Amino acid sequence: MTRLPNRAGGGARTNFNGLNFERETSLAQAFRNKGFTVTANHEVYYGDQYIGLSINKAAFSTVFLRERGINYLDYNSKRWDPDEAFINDLNNTIYIIEKKFQGQAGSVDEKLATFPFKIQEYQRLIEPIDYKVEYIYLLSSYFNQPRYDDYFDYMQQEGCPYFFNELPFYAIGLDF
Fold first, then answer.
1. Hey, how many other C-beta atoms are within 10 angstroms of the C-beta on 160?
2. What is the pTM (predicted TM-score) of this model?
């Protein structure tokens, strides 16, 4: 039987679409758009006031954790790289921002229920330092439909906020 080309997504298209969504929803760019300064070292300032760090992917381990003497292998069996994270030094909270893009029915939606395990793993990592962990989903508008209501009910019940396409600053502890 001849294999038909994948025209709907999945596989490489899923990765391509997801990476585009991650770029389009860049937290560092959102900070800049609101008048904040984000340095090459990931530091976020509002005027002269230092706010925290805006980092993504491996920088969480290679910048934030390493600079605090934390080797992820001492706490987890694998390295956890959040899509983005905001380390708010005003309230000592690490906001892990998990971004999910979907354009049609598929397996990404099943990942929405995995946050309790991920929160546990991130909390282990930061145990030696005085920070709290908040886990947030930033979802593409595809998810804003009734078929996901059970997921959203569960997320609300367990205290995991979620937003569509744009992350409001109040969600990361800022009211600027």
1. 21
2. 0.86
pLDDT tens digit string along 42-88? Answer: 999 999 999 999 998 889 998 899 999 999 999 999 999 999 999 99
| Digit-coded pLDDT (tens) for 117-135 | 999 999 999 999 989 999 9
- 86: closest CA among 78, 96, 77? 96
Contacts from 6-13 at CB under 8 Å and sequence distance 24+?
8/104, 9/103, 9/104, 9/106, 10/106
167 in Cβ contact with 136 (< 8 Å)? yes
Q: Using CA of residue 113, residue 42, residue 68, residue 65, what is the dihedral sign?
A: positive
CA 136, CA 134: separation in Å to the nearest integer? 7
Quick one: CA dihedral 108, 114, 119, 122, positive or negative?
Answer: negative
Closest CA to 51 of 88, 85, 84, 96: 88
The whole-angstrom separation of Cα 147 and Cα 5 is: 28
Over the stretch 100-113, which tens digit does the pLDDT of each residue have?
A: 887 666 667 788 99
